[in-house]
Write a structure and sequence with these properties.
The complex is a heterodimer. Chain A is of the alpha/beta class. Chain A has helices at residues 8-15, 28-31, 57-71, 94-103; strands at 34-40, 43-48, 77-81, 105-106, 125-129, 137-142, 148-152. Chain A is elongated, with a radius of gyration of 18 Å. Chain B has one domain: Up-down Bundle (Ferritin), CATH 1.20.1260. Chain B is globular. The chains are: A alpha/beta, B mainly alpha. Chains A and B meet through loops of A and helix 2 and helix 6 of B.
Chain lengths: 155, 251
């Protein structure tokens, strides 16, 4: 039997269409958690790194990757977990950052806080809590428009 | 004694498991919504770390058990967590003091473990340290805020410190398991972390206007499993009941 293997670039393209289950405006590749895609014989190996060790989205992400690849005819899939180097928000793509901002989540900055309110763009913002609705987010508030908003925290 | 590496990994995993479960007991009943969310997130991180530590322990043991089997099917005398983390939550102040006393040890310890010659241990430590950095930042801020707060909050924080301090010493007492790992370059000497710890907590207590207890008497027996406090068994009846009543239940 001749097995037609899609190219690695094609697979990366497919994965860039799989949305993050918690923040569906960004894709898994925007998030920077897909560390490697490679063929091992006729098995497609996808290496994924978790964002936070206890993030419940991790199992959903693995399931979504498998489903997306199966839908495109890949039969043998192996998902590998890679812990080191540990995921960092530096791996978020520029496109991913823009999508977050447009969605109303302030993108991470090394300075440790948002540049401005993602809604009204005022730089007058304050932290409510270092923890938020998902492990990757903190709660902030805008002093200008008074709206609370999520900040994707640096890690 | 069983394989020192297995014992060691159970200690790491049981610390995060037992503390994670304790902290999760606040879910839905914390004083304000932001604190509720912060506590639940902290618990989630700790349980996630538990899956990594106990997952590796099960792999090392190679006896057909997995992280869930270790967490839910062992009895109280097989647990290897520090006595500090099994202490009941008490009020919010005591919970945060327990967290601070643990975090102030946990982060430097994980940082030291990032140099472990076992790449698997180093990787878990690297991953965990990022999360624990946030835990320590929060527990430090809370201890200072409540310690240097109202008369009521100050008194409660001092009472929490007085009550929990006797459980601090155990974190720095090494035994044959520690020596075995230290000799192989896998883990640090626990005692080596004490000076840094005393300095860190000392600074925070000063900022929090709290007085460090003079007596360094330490209860021991948690990490060796020789003598847990009576609280752990009660906690396990809650934590383990589902897997005990309905073995292998999944959803």
């Amino acid at each position: 039997m001749v097995i037609e293997r899609p190219s690695i670039d094609t697979v990366w393209g497919w994965l860039s269409e799989v949305p993050d289950p918690e923040i569906p405006v960004i894709s898994l590749t925007d998030l920077g958690i897909v560390r490697d895609v490679a063929w091992a014989g006729d098995t497609l190996e996808v290496t994924v790194t978790p964002t936070y060790s206890g993030c419940p989205a991790t199992t959903i992400i693995n399931l979504d990757i498998e489903t997306a690849l199966r839908e495109r005819g890949v039969e043998n899939i192996r998902l590998k977990r890679q812990l080191s180097p540990a995921w960092t928000t530096d791996w978020l793509t520029a496109e991913g950052r823009e999508k977050l901002e447009r969605y109303g989540i302030a993108p991470p900055r090394p300075a440790g806080g948002p540049e401005h309110c993602p809604l009204c763009k005022s730089p007058d913002v304050e932290r409510i809590s270092q923890f938020g609705s998902t492990p990757c987010k903190a709660q902030w508030r805008c002093r200008a428009c008074l709206e609370p908003f999520d900040y994707f925290k640096c890690i | 004694m069983s394989d020192p590496l297995f014992e060691y990994l159970c200690r790491m995993g049981d610390n995060t498991l037992v503390l994670g479960h304790r902290v999760s007991e606040w879910c839905g009943v914390a004083p304000v919504l932001e604190e509720d969310i912060a506590l639940a997130n902290t618990a989630l991180d700790l349980i996630g770390q538990t899956q990594l530590w106990l997952g590796l322990a099960a792999e090392v043991e190679d006896a057909g058990r997995d992280a869930d089997a270790l967490a839910f099917r062992r009895d109280v005398w097989d647990f290897r967590n520090l006595l500090l983390v099994e202490q009941p939550n008490g009020d919010f102040g005591r919970t945060m003091m327990r967290q601070f006393l643990f975090d102030a040890w946990h982060l430097p310890y994980l940082t030291a473990l990032m140099d472990s010659k076992d790449a698997r241990i180093a990787a878990i430590a690297e991953k965990s340290a990022k999360e624990v950095t946030y835990h320590l930042e929060r527990s430090t801020d809370t201890v200072i805020g409540l310690g240097d707060g109202t008369e009521e909050s100050h008194n409660r924080m001092q009472a929490a410190l007085d009550r929990l301090w006797p459980y601090v010493g155990e974190m720095f007492v090494g035994d044959a398991v520690d020596s075995s790992l230290q000799e192989r370059g896998l883990a640090p000497d626990p005692a080596s972390l004490r000076p840094g710890y005393d300095e860190l907590v000392g600074d925070v207590f000063t900022a929090a206007t709290l007085k460090r207890p003079e007596d360094d008497f330490a209860h021991k027996g948690g990490k060796t499993g020789a003598r847990h406090s009576e609280h752990l068994g009660h906690m396990l009846t809650q934590m383990q009941w589902l897997q005990r009543a309905y073995p292998d239940a999944t959803w």
